[in-house]
Amino acid sequence: MVSDTYPPAKQRPAAISDTIFLRLNAKFALGADDLQWILYRSRREAPSPLDAPLKFGRGSEWLPVSFVRSSKDILFRCMREKGCKPCDEAKVALAMLPCTFDAWKPAERARRASACAQREATTMNASKPVFPAFEHAQPSTGAVLA
To answer: What pTM did the predictor assign?
Structure first.
């Protein structure tokens, strides 16, 4: 039975991450929602690119296999239990994670807000027309062209 009180996915507010933020190896990835880190295992032989959106529900590529709200140590234990051996690049990224999800969450939100602001600034600057011949023009003297 489906609950009438929980809104459908399209109406829910966006979570901290709608994408995987760290590919651990060819078959595993790490993501998060507003409550926890989520360890995902790919159902495919050749997983999608890292920045591909997660597709939830029936037929999705990524299967959530562990949910960790507490500490990085518990996350590592879950990874070992599921047979996830991170690649060297992932090991470096995991070492830089804060010790708890609660410490990671505000830092990740700030990082995403900064990245979003940078993208918007880049988009705004790219959309401005540039007229090099007029960049150094002097103010008009009031003459009217006929």
So the answer is: 0.65
